[in-house]
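Hello Y.,

Per our agreement to keep a running log of every chain we model this quarter, I'm adding this entry. I've kept the format consistent with earlier entries: sequence first, then predicted structure.
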Amino acid sequence: MADAPYDIAVIGGGPGGYVCAIRAAQLGLRTACVDKRGSLGGTCLNVGCIPSKALLHASERFAEASHGLGRLGIKLGEVGLDLGAMMAHKDKAVGDLTKGIAFLLKKNQVDYVKGAATLIGPGAIAVTDAEGRETELAADNIIIATGSDHMDLPGIAVDEKRIVSSTGALALAEVPKHLVVVGAGYIGLELGSVWLRLGAKVTVVEFLDRIVPGMDAEIAKIFQRVLKKQGMTFHLSSKVTGAKAGKTGVGLTVEPAKGGAAETMEADVVLVAIGRRPHTEGLGLERAGVGLDGAGRIKVDGRFQTNIAGVYAIGDVIAGAMLAHKAEEEGVAVAEILAGQSGHVNYETVPGIVYTWPEVAAVGKTEDELKQASVDYEVGKFPFTANSRARCTGDTEGFVKILSDAKTDRILGAHIIGPDAGTLIHEVVIAMEFGASAEDLARSFHGHPTLNEAVKEAALAVAGRAIHM
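Predicted structure for the entry above:
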């Protein structure tokens, strides 16, 4: 084959893919970004992070206007819902951002190739466009960044009308009277919160005995209590074993996770949100000999290279948290590695955020993980009820928890449930990136009155010297 026209061809235009392509181009590498959706940004921008946050914000404002402003002395008349306008707001946010990414690729001289890509040989991929025309594209290095798809429940077909994935739940034509959410993770609780605020009855069915698996157990317990107070109903340690969709609703069969008598449940809409799986179908991986692990993820080494020379993978298709910001950092890292630099990702500081209200955010280790690893640690906690700014706004639900090494005081993790937790957690992310101790954080200036003072007080509490508690 002749010299490849590209140094790098990125398959996938989501957060990992387009960021990787832009960084590679910045480093002087000839780069192409191949994406089949026809609208850049991947799941995150088109049918995930961005539209869900637009609806979360809009539904929060609706709930506040409906019954949250009276306590502030603000009187309103009857508040109405224009769901079409709310969806239009969501769609505009998505459209503006996808166009923005296309502009950034062009600005950085990345070739945007529309079509589905398949590996066909060393340094070569076939790209099939929407009309079925196939062209061959050659590159010295191929980076797979195709993201993930929703997982289905065995025997239950998602039709995106009555039984929906997160994609369908973002585009319902009307507020359901009863929404059943299967799965109590980030996605299910966020979208459940949207429709709960807009007037739906929301029931969450979760196989495990707790919500938000993997997050701090104490936070999860408080989080469930808060959501229950907002009106959400939970069926934990339960599994959905059947679902029959009709013209007006869905009949569900729900059983105890450990076995027992089944019960029936009627819903207008059922949201299946039990997790996501790597999107690797149709890429020609088996023919190319690319190795996968038991979960169907692409196996890579410390430099993101697969077992096939010149083929790399990042984001949701490899092991680790399925988060847009994790994919972005991997995209930057692999581009820098291929440019001869020392790209790396610190997986100890990947934050996780649930954008409900209050928000829930975490970084680093949980108490359970530290106990299992036999690590001696100290805990500092501070409630938002004792924070001046939270008192002023009335958002006093929740607390900040900081975990540090008992010997070195190095921060090992932080967990927050409360107002703007997703913003506050990044203070600790940066501190951990620099190897800071709880005392370092405690001795840093924090403006008054701010929510951030709760983080400072939690760091002080590690040593038993919180001031305002």
